[in-house]
Design brief:
Length: about 230
């Protein structure tokens, strides 16, 4: 499987992270996203007319949406990441996959504005990002009350992997995560998963890894740190 990839892209990182968690070996083809805008070159537009990365190629199959790539990688090698398959659970995962596109547009847009000087209304991008973070915080708080660490269950699913990167990188766009304790606990749980990999700006846990399924462990760990 070949991933058209850019190391600083949170959307590409979703695919790399899912592959790592699933134990799938990806061949990486580095795309000169910046400054070369290679994702808009004729060769890449032929693969993805939308002009975005990641793109995953597996034989004749070409996937150009990160959510579809997560479904494919999990389906191939880590079906637990697709949830239990009950109608409500499957629908909730889809709900979060759609929500992740709002994170890309808002927090991702703010990050592109700040890091690559993309034009855009930074205050409006940040405001939409903060609105999305508030929704996420409320949902994760509810999950914790139910004793569930992740977005749809006790165990992580592709919903978590789809939402994690742009949230974790929100500070790059000037959006602080200080006001969202449930989000910070959830990010720790994701970073503690077996097989977790880093990207620039998202690091492994330096502390002794807590059990991501034990909420009280996570709360204690969070209380003892400022990150
Ligand atoms: N809907 C796409 C969006 C991915 C996306 O926004 N990728 C960024 C890189 S992180 C991109 O290629 N943007 C094109 C551009 O900014 O020119 C997906 O989820 O795969």
């Amino acid at each position: 499987m070949l991933l058209y990839d850019y190391i600083l892209s949170p959307s590409c990182y979703k695919a790399r992270l899912m592959a790592a968690l699933a134990g799938v070996k990806l061949a990486l083809r580095a795309v000169d996203f910046h400054p070369g805008a290679e994702h808009r070159s004729p060769a890449l537009l032929a693969l993805n007319p939308a002009g975005s990365i990641p793109i995953l190629v597996d034989g004749d199959l070409v996937l150009t949406e990160s959510s579809a790539i997560l479904v494919y990688l999990a389906g191939k090698a880590a079906p637990a990441y697709l949830g239990r398959g009950d109608p409500a659970g499957a629908a909730r995962i889809q709900q979060w996959l759609a929500f992740s596109a709002r994170l890309t547009a808002s927090l991702g847009g703010a990050r592109l504005h700040e890091m690559l000087h993309r034009p855009g209304d930074i205050e409006s991008l940040r405001a939409s990002g903060i609105a999305a973070l508030r929704e996420l915080e409320a949902a994760l708080f509810e999950q914790r009350i139910k004793g569930e660490t992740f977005l749809t269950a006790v165990r992580p699913t592709i919903a978590d992997i789809a939402c994690f990167p742009y949230v974790a990188l929100a500070p790059d766009g000037g959006v602080s995560l200080d006001a969202y304790p449930s989000i910070r606990l959830w990010m720790r749980a994701v970073r503690a998963l077996d097989g977790f990999i880093e990207m620039p700006g998202i690091h492994r846990l330096h502390e002794l890894k807590p059990d991501p399924h034990d909420v009280s462990n996570l709360m204690e760990a969070e209380a003892g740190t400022s990150s």
